[in-house]
Design goal:
Elements (H helix, E strand, L loop, with lengths): L7 E3 L4 H11 L5 E3 L2
Parallel strand pairs: 1-2
Length: 35
């Protein structure tokens, strides 16, 4: 990805936490990373 400020969550992270991130940062997409 070539965009600055990539936002991500982890595959084992709770959906509610990922939703909070998108709302707080005002983004529509998160990349999902495995650990």
């Amino acid at each position: 990805m070539m965009s600055p400020g990539i936002f991500f969550c982890f595959e084992d992270q709770a959906l509610e936490q990922a939703l909070e991130q998108t709302q707080a940062r005002r983004v529509r997409h998160l990349s999902v990373l495995n650990r």
